[in-house]
Structure formats: C-alpha cells, structure tokens
Amino acid sequence: MAQEVTLFDLASKPPCKSWSFNPWKTRLVLNYKSLPYKTHWLEFPDIAPHLQPLGIPPNTQGKPYTVPTIHLPSSPSYPDGENIMDSKAIAIALEAKYPEPHLHLDAPELGRAEELWMQLLRSLVGVFGPRVDSTLLNDRSREYTEANIHLEGKPDGDDAWASAKPMLGDIGALLKEKGGPYVLGETGEFKPHDLLLFFHLYTQIAVSMFVADV
Length: 214
Hints:
Layout: E1 5-10, H1 21-32, E2 37-42, H2 47-51, E3 69-72, E4 82-85, H3 87-97, H4 109-135, H5 139-148, H6 157-176, H7 193-205
Parallel strand pairs: 1-2
Antiparallel strand pairs: 1-3, 3-4
C-alpha cells in the first residue's frame, strides 16, 4: 500500500469539511486512485505563510501560494518527500506515479470541458462568492476574502443564471456526445468532475437554490 499523502485544503466552519472546487479535484483523484491521505486544514491568510517555507516554487500567475497542495511521501528521488501545488499539476504527478486507474488527462474533449467550466464559473461568481463568505468561512478567512477578493459589479440572481444558461446547455450537449455519463462516455476522467463539484458547493451554501417552487 502507498504511504500516506498530505492534502492541504481550505478550512470551513465546524464541522470542518472540504468545500472548495480545486482542492476537491485533488481529493477526487486521491479517492479515485484509492490513495491513503490525510487533510491539513488551512485558513486563507495562513496559506502562503505555511506553504512558502516548504520550498514550493510560487505560482507564476495569480496568488503565489494556493491550495490544493500535496506532500508526497519520501522516495529515492525525494528523500524528504515532494510538495506539489495546483490541482492540474497534482493530477499529472499522481497519474505518473500511480497510473492505475487511468485519468485520461490527454483526451482532447477535456480541453472543451475546461473552457466551458471556466465560462460557467465567471458567469456565476457573483452568486456563490458572497454566500461562501457568509455560510462556510471562519472569521479569519472571511475577513481575508472581504479585504482581498472584490466581487462588486458581478451579476447575481436571475441575471447571473440567465448568462450561465448557454454554458450549462453546452456542457449537457458535451456530456451527451459519447452517451454519458462522462465526457468520454462510460470512461471516467479528471475534468468533468468539475460540474459535480460545482453543484456540491451550491448544496452547501444555499440548498434552497435547488428546491423548486410548488
């Protein structure tokens, strides 16, 4: 059995649980490959102070240090273990180290899925952003996001959902091309789990969004 991986993830209000899209991508890969792991919870303002001393090269765009980050156990190539940041880089590294079951990261359909996913996120950030702050975050993380992440002018409510409707239709069509339930048909893959994670977050911040009027 593989040694235990450490996954750095964003903390939530008690009971602490995973809620953020990108860390959940890595969590799903670890689960899919049946790799044992433990979670190290971090508040937003603690991410950089905790990860920088690990010697991880900073991101070249956006925030220099982000989650998910993982610490892989020691190996002949990395006697002190290996630290990897960014969900895509983590997926590539885990696929190389633990190739079965296969993630199909090189499938061309996944590029289309990722583009649609990013369009959907941009359309709905004004809906979920404020609700994450008020529903899920502890005080230190909430104060950090209020000071550093600005959502003024982002569409909310019906306007946001109207702008997202074409992307949701395109995602549905993409899933149907090979018969579903995944983009690659019966074969599971890395990227389309994003849509699952998207609705998982919404069920945590506002269950009423999914309850039809009767």
